[in-house]
Amino acid sequence: MTVTGDGQSKGVNMMEYGKFDGKLVRQVLGAKTQFIIGDMACVYGALLAGCRFYAGYPITPASELAEGSARLMPKIGGTYIQMEDEIGSIAAAIGASWTGVRSMTGTSGPGFSLMMENLGYAVMTETPVVIINIQRTGPSTGQPTLGAQGDMMQAKWGSHGDYEIIALAPSSVQECLNLTVDAFNLAEKYRNPVLVMADGEIGHLRERIVVPDEKDMLVQFRTLVKVPKDKYVPFVPSVANPGSNVPDFAPFGSGYHTYVTGLTHNEKGMPATDKQPDHDKLIRRIVSKITGNMDKLLRVEELMLDDADVAVVCYGATARPAQTAIEDARAMGIKVGMARMLITWPFPYAYFEKLAGKVKAMLVPEMNLGQMVHPIREAAGGQCKVQPLGKIGGEMHLPSEILMGIKGMM
Amino acid sequence: MSTTKKGVAGTTGVGPTGKTTADYEQMRDKYLRKSMWPTIFCTGCGHGSVLDYTFWALEELALDMDRVVFVSGIGCSSRLPGYINADGLHTTHGRAIAFATGVKSANPDLTVIVFTGDGDCSGIGGNHFLHGVRRNIDITVIAVNNFIYGMTGGQLAPSTPRGAITTTSPYGNVENPFNMAEIAMVGGASYVARWPVSHPYQPIKSIKDGIKKKGFAFIEMLSPCPTAFGRRNKLGDVQKLWDWYDEQCMYKEDYDKVMAYGTPEEREKTKDKITIGVLQDIEKPEFTTEYAKVVERLRSQKGGGGSAEEY
Amino acid sequence: MVIKIEREWCKGCGVCIERCPLHALELSKEMNKKGYFPPELTPNNTCNNCRLCELICPDLAIGVFVETVEGEVKAKGDGKNGPDSEYGSGEG
User: Fold this and answer.
1) Between A55 and which of A89, A215, A297, B224 could a Cys-Cys bridge form, CB atoms 3.0 to 4.6 Å apart?
2) 3-class SS at A37?
3) Is residue A269 part of a domain?
4) Is the distance from CB of A89 to CB of A57 less than 8 angstroms?
5) Are residues A210 and A309 in the same domain?
6) What is the domain extent for residue A82?
């Protein structure tokens, strides 16, 4: 985009949207192998995926997301802005996304609760945005410095109304990096907000990461509008990718004069709140972007499940003690395996329905009083026993605790 | 700067240059989303006039409408972007300034104009209002103040005068109203003005100056609401209500003079008047400009490495 | 014709009629589709093209013409211009 002296640009090159200098990002990030905390790895992942806008607010244990962004964003020509609260943070991230930049915000439980209204707004307006939740114990102020997995249901049901969300759960610091990259790609592809549900343990864990090379990474940008302005209809299935329910995107400033509203709207984007079919059509299309792509959004990592009698179903931090417990159990001759969800929402019902038919029991260790165990049980449909193993208070499960749980299932 | 395109003049005044309706109709064709017209606003509501003044201000400035973004919250005022032929972001209640901050700081090339209301801005949006002022981000906020929550049927608002009847103050308001423009002034906003909608030229100029201003511009427009505020306070007749607004207003210079030098009777009569005029017009560092300096400074440093540092 | 009124846009608020400094407007006798009576010029009006009605109308329903006679612009009425304004004639 060329900018004239008075700040009014003359002409816009659509192809410039979404471009970023991957070489500069890697130069700024520094060494290829580093020893950093999970929060920082999320920031790295964001930058590598082309994010250049962070709006945030301090909250333990996610403040380092803001601090890292504050330090790194200006170095790559991006923007860090500290907003007055979490509501303003997600609002600014959504506003920024509409100018055609990849944007994100990060927080923990209390801030996540505050963000719920605008999360729904991002879904309704089909805005790509990434929200990172470094979960801590709750409810309310809880234990600010200790991790938990107590927001998993809120991730899907926290905002009002009918909507779908994509949520990823990293189990290591490297995954914080990798899954944040994936989060951006998914947000751009589906024009939906995407959550990275890390927890305080992983967020503040320090581990070795490797910065991926450009050639080893996929970086996706939203599909831009290509039709001439007089033929432009904002909220219809893609014209550029026939068969996709995701509308093509026209950034603010590109001359398409898009009206974006959280009200139920028609295809032109104008409010249409009087009739049932209008709302039905809009919401079902928005939801189908996710529900119509369940096969592409299935990400479950299996470990020793082929001959397993018991499956330990986990995600995020609990996968680590679970893995040790499974290895110990196998050494004792117990046939147990692990199904680790990397994408927790949309929930892989079909996968767990099938798994429930193969195993005798499922153990679900969570750092909460039982959240993901509910859709797991629903998917199992009574085919096998589903047992939660909740632990709250900010301490991760010990492998021995999970092992005891496994033994209890036999 | 003068534009010489046919039919699109750089003036709106009644000076000797005169105007033909071709300009007026072309203005409407250019700025109005005609398919959405007529508006949802009630008979005698001043919101449409605010829209008209904004159009004329934009016309005067001859901005590229492809590069102007309108952001609004929830309420009657927040429906205004839907009538404008430009990019519009109709957001959640009270958050317009936060969304606008995101738009502007991500792409400072864009001209960002916010339409908000008294409840949207100083009620639920109070925090974002304060920080928009504090941050001095280069956006223009046009706050349409009708002293009530109009869209939801006429509830008490932070701007409702003492004693006024609303659906949630059926026995008279016992709270004190906010003076939004004064809050913006005291907070240090770069440009603050307040005008009633009944006089066109001053608001047009203020909106124009606010957009031109590099910094947070706050223009409070006092707009009649005959359906909610007017009706319940026995000011329901449209003409009576528009006149009442004019009677409440007083130029700030005059107000200050009376309060400083007037007799006790004069001061008593004057003290509840609403001050209008350009209340503040100052220069101060603006957020996106200052941030761009930081970026420039870092980019020009040798070697960009070192990164996580402490982490 | 000195003013052009979009009859179907008018919401009958009457502000133009009330605020015209020369009392040149009155209610018309014919309703529009919404049931309002849009304004029209009075028979012996002295409209001087001040354009206050055009600017103030909340529904953008009035436009004010200036008669052009052989390229020369003439205002109808007594030729005096509208209220003094420090606003003047824009930039440049």
Assistant:
1) A89
2) strand
3) no
4) yes
5) no
6) 14-216
Distance between CA B184 and CA B200 in Å, rounded?
23
If chain A, 410 residues long, is cut into consecutive pieces of 10 residues, what is the mean pLDDT of each piece? 41 82 93 96 97 97 96 95 97 98 97 98 98 96 96 97 98 98 98 97 96 94 94 94 94 96 96 96 97 96 96 97 97 96 98 97 97 97 97 96 94
**How confident is residue B16, by pLDDT bands cut at 50, 70 and 90?**
very low
For chain C, domain boundaries: 3-74
Residue A314 backbone phi and psi in degrees, to 5:
-150, 180
Q: Is residue A317 part of a domain?
A: yes
- How open is the CA angle A82-A87-A98, to the nearest 5 degrees? 80
Domains of chain B: 21-251+277-296 (3.40.50.970)
Asked if residue B85 lies in contact with residue B32, where contact means CB atoms within 8 angstroms, the answer is: yes
Q: How many CA atoms lie within 13 A of A382 on its CB side?
A: 0
Sign of CA dihedral C43, C47, C51, C53: negative
Q: Which of residues 268-327 of A touch B (CB under 8 A)?
A: 270-271
Going by C-alpha positions, the residue among B104, B128, B139 that lies closest to residue A95 is B104
Partner B contacted by A351 (CB < 8 A):
no
Cβ-nearest to A96 among B63, B71, B105: B105
**End of a domain among A175, A197, A216?**
A216
Q: Does A284 fall in a domain?
A: no
| Nearest-angstrom CA–CA distance, B143 and B251 | 19
Burial class of residue B196, CB neighbours in 10 A (0-12, 13-18, 19+): buried
**Domain CATH code at residue A372:** 3.40.50.920
Q: At A35, which CATH number?
A: 3.40.50.970
Give the residue among A26, A83, A78 at the shortest CA–CA distance from A59: A83
* Among candidate residues A150, A178, A180, A177, the one with its CA nearest the CA of residue A166: A180
Q: What is the pLDDT of residues B22-70, one digit of tens each?
A: 467 778 889 999 888 889 999 999 999 999 999 989 988 889 999 999 9
- Contact check, Cβ <8 Å, B238/C15: yes
Strand partners, A217: none
The model carries a pTM of 0.92
Residue A174 lies in a domain: yes
Do strands C72-74 and C39-41 pair parallel, antiparallel, or not at all (unpaired)? unpaired
Which residues 6+ apart lie within 8 Å of B281 measured at CB? B190, B191, B192, B209, B213
Q: Which of A184, A216, A248 corresponds to the end of one domain?
A: A216
Note the pLDDT of residue C50.
Answer: 83
* DSSP state, residue C44: T
Q: Provide the number of structural domains found in chain A.
A: 2
Residues A42 and A144 in one domain: yes
Q: CA B309 to CA A37: how far, in whole Å?
A: 11
Shortest distance between the Cα of B184 and any Cα of chain A, in A, equals: 17
Residue B172's alpha-carbon distances to A399, B146, B164, B176, B248, in angstroms, are: 65, 17, 5, 12, 19
B–C touching, 3+ CB–CB pairs within 8 Å? yes
Claim to verify: residue A202 and residue A329 sit in the same structural domain: no
**ipTM of model over 0.90:** yes
- Please report how the helices B96-106 and A86-97 are oriented relative to each other, as an axis angle in degrees rounded to 10: 50
Q: Do B106 and A121 touch (CB under 8 A)?
A: no
The kind and range of the H/E element at A312 are strand A310-315
CB contact under 8 A, B106 and A79: yes
- Residue B8 CA to residue B62 CA, distance in Å, equals 9
Residue C4 reports pLDDT greater than 90: no
Residue in A10, A88, A252 nearest the CB of B87: A252
* 3-state secondary structure at position A43: helix
| Tens-place pLDDT, residues B242-259 | 999 999 999 999 999 999
**What does the block give as tokens for A331?**
């050494």
* pLDDT-derived band at C84, boundaries 50, 70, 90: very low
